[in-house]
Amino acid sequence: RSQLLLFLGMYSTGSSLSCKWIVKDPGDKMCQFSLHNKQALGLLDMMITNTTKDAEIEHNVAFPNRLYRKTSKATAEDKLAFTVQILEKLFALFEEDHSSASWEENTVENFLNIVNKQAEELRSCVSSLSFVFGYSAEAWETIRNITKDHLSQCGFLVNSLGNAH
């Protein structure tokens, strides 16, 4: 849930891009992105089941706060491109076989539709050059550093398996 909450803070960064999806119309309480984001968060809340509601689930995976802090200093276009990629990865993740979660299929489908809509609309706000030619040098340095951190953490995880057996 906290992952998607961070997106709420990112919608205002694109107003300079003249993107209607992230600009609040006069008289509206929130922009379209925020409205859809709120709906997606609500659907995630609905997906909790009786079997997981009271479960003691350890959160061993740290949220990449540093990545979001660095991205918050990027250009508006890079922020939107980053958000599009996150939404696309979320879509792919939840599209996987989740039958063991016993979620209501209709709720998952609605969630996927909203996440896909957000990604499509934000993608249209970003210059196609950002996706073809890539991010700025600063953004690539951030990506490189975070990739290094992820690979290091993966190494620690795999190495810990040798100690457990």
Automatic annotation (TrEMBL):
Any Pfam family the entry gives: Interferon
GO cellular component, one term: extracellular space
Subcellular location: Secreted
InterPro entries hit by this protein: 4_helix_cytokine-like_core (IPR009079), Interferon_alpha/beta/delta (IPR000471)
Keywords on record: Antiviral defense, Cytokine, Disulfide bond, Secreted, Signal
Family: Belongs to the alpha/beta interferon family.
Protein's name according to its UniProt entry: Uncharacterized protein
